[in-house]
Write a structure and sequence with these properties.
CATH topology: Rossmann fold
CATH architecture: 3-Layer(aba) Sandwich
Order of helices and strands: EHEHEHEHHEHEEHEEEHEEHEHH
Helix content: 25-40%
Organism: Roseibium aggregatum
Keywords: NAD
Number of domains: 1
Number of helices: 11
Strand content: 15-25%
Distance between the termini: 42 Å
Radius of gyration: 19 Å
Structural class: alpha/beta
Protein name: SDR family NAD(P)-dependent oxidoreductase
Length: 336
């Protein structure tokens, strides 16, 4: 039985990923700080469900605290590491940038140092579509330049990509960075648009629609994302002996390191997304049209060809199907 360390295991994506790994017969060590960025009871409930499986072990600690990860690597010697723990949210990074520095930068540094001392077979680190920043050429491809991030959140995630590359090069640590695109689904974060929109619509309150609704997102259903991550575990990058990288591959010419998009490969208009929520709730949304928020981008759209080439898989859940599943969960969980 292989051991997987998942940081951020009580988070939205972390919960679904741990569930999938346990189903596939892995032993899972879940590390989470249970921070109060959003409703902690949601995180606690996710861990409670995971703890029903005897092969799941929960550890409550911050990734950025010195020695936490080093001691965990020493004690558990994980075969696979999947690093999801991070301070999330573009808008919050304008208000509280230090929390992003500590969790995203310092936390990733502690992880890389622990991996340097106790090398796993493969490390998979979460990045974000926000790393593409001011790029306007779409769909986004992993080999595109990404030098102009528009938020501090995005800047910290791009920094972790570079940090991981240096460790992969210096210490031959196999690393896959996966960039995900507007993940949604049951058990989602309350600060995300789907959760906020659904709550407001069901309560008869208006929703804030930024850029006057002229926004496009590559909405990716959470179980599709998790399927991509699961399959990438077995796609371990190997340093090219001759420095030659196959066309279309983001593999580094000097390290066992690559970036992979995990997205639905479809740019969906925000108005269509809202329409799907209206259909699922059976209620019409009152829209408060607003200008674009600082640090945000008008569109995201993933090219998922590399993911398919590496794993044979491409996300496929439609927005209307995924939104309906979320609304069903929301009504059941909150009894509305």
């Amino acid at each position: 039985m292989k051991t997987v360390l998942v940081t951020g295991s009580a988070g939205f994506i972390g919960y679904f990923l741990c569930t999938r790994l346990l189903q596939d017969g892995f032993r899972v060590i879940g590390l989470d700080a249970m921070t109060d960025y959003y409703d902690v009871s949601l995180k606690e409930r996710r861990h409670q469900m995971l703890l029903q499986n005897q092969h799941f072990k929960a550890v409550c600690a911050r990734v950025e605290d010195p020695d936490v990860l080093m001691n965990l690597f020493r004690a558990e010697t994980p075969d696979i590491v999947i690093h999801l723990a991070a301070q999330a949210g573009v808008r919050y990074s304008i208000e509280e940038p230090r929390s992003y520095l500590q969790s995203n930068i310092c936390g990733t540094f502690e992880l890389l140092e622990a991996a340097r001392a106790h090398p796993p077979q493969h490390m998979l680190l979460a990045s974000t579509s926000s790393a593409y920043g001011a790029n306007t050429h779409m769909p986004y491809t992993e080999t595109d330049k990404s030098d102009h991030q528009l938020s501090f959140y995005a800047a910290t995630k791009k920094a972790t990509e570079n940090m991981a590359h240096s460790y992969a090069h210096l210490f031959d640590l196999p690393v896959t960075m996966f960039r995900f695109f507007t993940v949604y689904g049951p058990w989602g974060r309350p600060d995300m648009a789907l959760f906020k929109f659904t709550k407001a619509i069901l309560e008869g309150r208006p929703i804030d629609v930024y850029n006057y609704g002229d926004m496009k997102r590559d909405f990716t259903y959470v179980e599709d994302l998790v399927e991509g991550i699961r399959l990438l575990i077995d796609a371990v990058p190997v340093r090219p002996e001759d420095g030659i990288v196959p066309e279309g591959d983001s593999l580094s010419p000097v390290a066992p390191w690559r970036i992979v998009n995990i997205g639905n490969s479809e740019a969906v208009q925000l108005t269509e997304f809202i329409s799907a929520i209206e259909d699922a709730t059976g209620r019409k949304a009152e829209q408060n049209l607003m200008p674009m928020q600082a640090g945000d981008v008008p569109a995201t759209w993933a090219n998922a060809d590399l993911l398919q080439a590496l794993t044979g898989y491409r996300p496929k859940t439609s927005v209307r199907e995924g939104v309906a599943r979320f609304v069903e969960w929301y009504r059941d969980y909150y009894r509305v």
